[in-house]
Amino acid sequence: MILDKNSPIPQYFQLQTWLIEQIEQGVFKPNDKIPTEAEFVQLTELSRATIRQAVQNLVNMGYLERKKRLGTFVINRKIDSNKNTIVGILIPDIRSGYAPELARGAEDEAAKNKHSLILCNTDDLFTSAEFHANRLTDHHVSGVIFVPTAASDAKNRLIIEKFTRNDIPVVLADRTIPDLKVDHITTDNFQGAYTLTEYLIRKGHNKIAMILSTLFSTERERLRGYKQALTDHGIPVDESIILTDNSPFIEMRYLNYAKKLLKRPNDLTAIFAGHDRIALQFYLAANDLNIKIPDHISLVGYDDLHFNTISLTTMHQPIYEMGVESMKLILARIRGEKKEPQKIKLKSYLVERSSVKQVGT
Amino acid sequence: MILDKNSPIPQYFQLQTWLIEQIEQGVFKPNDKIPTEAEFVQLTELSRATIRQAVQNLVNMGYLERKKRLGTFVINRKIDSNKNTIVGILIPDIRSGYAPELARGAEDEAAKNKHSLILCNTDDLFTSAEFHANRLTDHHVSGVIFVPTAASDAKNRLIIEKFTRNDIPVVLADRTIPDLKVDHITTDNFQGAYTLTEYLIRKGHNKIAMILSTLFSTERERLRGYKQALTDHGIPVDESIILTDNSPFIEMRYLNYAKKLLKRPNDLTAIFAGHDRIALQFYLAANDLNIKIPDHISLVGYDDLHFNTISLTTMHQPIYEMGVESMKLILARIRGEKKEPQKIKLKSYLVERSSVKQVGT
DNA sequence: ATTGTATAATTGTATAGACAATTATACATA
DNA sequence: TATGTATAATTGTCTATACAATTATACAAT
What we know:
With 361 residues, chain A is an alpha/beta fold.
């Protein structure tokens, strides 16, 4: 016991700090009995009242638990704090794309364990994400599920650091950021795009345009998968029919792209839209131009959003499951399970509807 | 000072209880200075240590604040707790209908004030709502926005009582429950349906079917508006073309209703769907049966969901605004503004697209 | 087998007193 | 005007002590 009698730091506070250290370093483990107050009096040569003051503070802080007649024990904070945990989720916009599905998955899993989920909409903006990050830190949430924004990797890293500096674990969902020691969970966009492209090739297509936003790792991965599938099937990659955009998703912009692409006289037989909302714009554009899908041109999307009135062949992403799994991951971190950062890739599967026609032979 | 020296209740605890009472009854008001420890020693004839024990507990509980040299003061808990408040929202399902829009409105308003929103999905089930209510109470949320479930009024009342018993204010959103002293905010469904029906009548329709679920106050109000509009225009209400259902919304069921109604040989010229998701089923059914909307029959919906591919004339509900306003209401209650329960009705407006044809002259 | 009783260990409650640290205020000094 | 200093009120820290309440355990009585 190293208490400095002459230090300006109060004795009770020294003792309290020492105790916390011992607990956090695992010298006193959960459920361990710490010395009795009488023993502490002998050990420290302080009065019992002072001992009690230190111990009482730790009880209030949730480190210790007193049991009459038995002594004072270290609480298993992990189990304890595991009740009624609050987790934050940072998604672009709860109104669009897969966000509702993701939120629902996360919420269901949280609710199952009596935890709660705080919703934050970033609109894919760094400033907004930063604002919410501050708020969540103020609220002392126990963990965060973060869908990185459309901002640069560096800026997204700032957000994550904001949390980790405050000992709040983070799980990245859907999109990743390179070289970062945090858990992340994505769908296998490379494999999915590969499968989808291969499907088109099998259907006889070999002039397949791709249109996507390069802003997100997800779509860049899809582009990789698309190119790889073409290459593996001996079809040269034609950069002139790969249309990339690096600004946030705006319907009108993609509607115009779609119209341009559909009007352009070329021998395209199929279009691979980077995600379903892009595909939707193609439907609308095609409708406008009196082009029939799949009769005149085939179309595939990616996401499997619930479009009730159009019958789009697309990759179904297990978004609900992603929500569930990210919550499981973050809860494991909150419980303090220390492993290497996990990189989970969920499998997507192809949903064949009627936007692709067999061509050629 | 009434302390019972002989009571088995500890002196410090008696003092502490008495102090809380004084504070909560407003005898000691926020920012008031309470007697100094020395004064308490005189008043109570207890030792200073005992006084301190009671006061320290109240400090820990957030009732009091010590200031060296100045004394001990009552904290203004309202102002204090007004920062970083957490509000719960109970909606049917974040994935469907207007829920995302409502949640977004509420979240934006909350974020603006540095508050946070906990998301709960009830699936319109009482048991689920009850579960979440318990969870939110455990978390000590400061207020709740509640979209009543499809269960009976009595059961929804139980949920609300659960909150009010714990001094958690509640705002009802979208749907109402009769005879309840809580704030609520709805759109004016009567007026909206009246406007919509009148619109159809002006377009020459006088044989207008209505199909709806009677489970929710919203749709029952719409039915009232529909009937009133007919009556006011001298059109007799024909109960045989009013199709009601009182089970939760299931797409298949309504698809079948739609098919039956569309197949039935009658002189219907227009259909008023209780909400957009019902209208969507009519689109799908019509498509199946090769019936063109609006050429063969006109259709209106209610909600203005974001259907990208169909062009439905419908009532736009200011759902985002409803989210914002319910958050404002609940925050006002949390701040302790005591008024009569407010009943706010937001105006909807008609969005004319192309699902209604002019008939007759 | 159940119920009651004594014991002892430990925390819980309480007293009386002492000195330290902090800080608003007033006053003094540069 | 700005800065330093003394004062006094109040909370902060700490000692030494005493008895009460709680309860696991062992053992006795029924």
